[in-house]
Amino acid sequence: MKAWENNIRKVVPYVPGEQPKMEQVIKLNTNENPYPPSLKVKNAQMDLNRLRLYPDPEAKDLVHAIASYHGVEDSQVFVGVGSDDVLAMSFLTFFNSDKPLLFPDITYSFYDVWADLFRIPYETPALDDEFHIVAADYYKANGGVIFPNPNAPTGQLVELSFIEDILEHNQDVIVIVDEAYIDFGGQTALPLLEKYENLLVVRTFSKSRCLAGLRIGYAIGNPSLIKALNDVKYSFNSYTMNYPTIVMGTACMEDEEYFQETVHKVMATREWFGKELTRLGFTFEQSYANFIFAKHKSVPAKEIFEAAKKEHIFVRYFNKPRINDYLRISIGTDDEMKAFVTFLEKYLQ
Ligand SMILES: *Cc1c(COP(=O)(O)O)cnc(C)c1O
After folding, report:
1. Ligand 1 in contact with 204 (CB < 6 A)?
2. Could you tell me if 220 and 183 lie in one domain?
3. What is the number of the ligand 1 atom nearest to the C-alpha of 83?
4. Are 226 and 174 in contact (CB under 8 A)?
5. Do 230 and 277 lie in a common domain?
6. pLDDT tens-digit profile of 277-287?
7. Number of H helices, E strands in the chain
8. pTM, entire model
9. Going by CA atoms, what residue is nearest to atom 11 of ligand 1?
């Protein structure tokens, strides 16, 4: 081993779901929205001469559009390049205690990657046997708390009273609720911001707003938290969000009708597809996200995953303890889900 190798930061990176290169795939593996972005995004007016200039480092137009949408002040909104960027900045900004950061053992698999990267000590209290978060596990001394609601990859939702209980027990640390999937039928924690200045709610345009390719995420919280985030962000790179993204993201926030239409279509397909899964011998808890996390009564998930892939149908399989019997199936269009059901009918015979 060379001496300089000691100085290399060694990390095990996050592995995103596969983005298959071939055409004609049914892609149900990364929770993208199956519908195109709003026409307002497509028709957004852009002055490409502006690309000569650096973009607005504060992304003011986008921040303002998001703030007005949620009825908060601009000073309460931080935007980033996808919520992964917002979350990474949040880990670096808020989790600087010697006490462990707490998040569930089964959750978004990027959290432990950031904790390792930034050398944040952490503990992962186990979900119970039905994959519910156990509130009491978060009462102990800690350096911060983060969990998604609904949780990923389980799709399970907790109520606001549950989140408030966690906040009541954690007033000396930052508590982050990652609401990547909240628009698919959950109740947002945003109203709790009035009472808890240590709460940060994180959102993304990637799922409910059909814009995973644009890379926009945001956090809403107390202005002092947002300022702390911006100070860290400007210490890395002032210009992470480019001009076209600011313009298109702003336009997206202006199309409430299309937003409502697409999330309701996804939810209706989820309910129909859930009934089909039950008929085919799968079990799962009610999902409040744009995916279903299901287990078959007799056929191993890995076998179904591999057989589906041969038919160019991609779902997500996690080869991890406790969840390696499950498939996470994103909700596509009705036609895509029908094709998957047809595959399952044949395969499971
Ligand atoms: C998808 C997802 C994100 C990241 O989304 P971005 O595309 O980076 O905005 C964050 N948290 C959870 C729980 C997710 O599922």
Report:
1. yes
2. yes
3. 9
4. no
5. no
6. 999 999 999 99
7. 10, 12
8. 0.97
9. 180
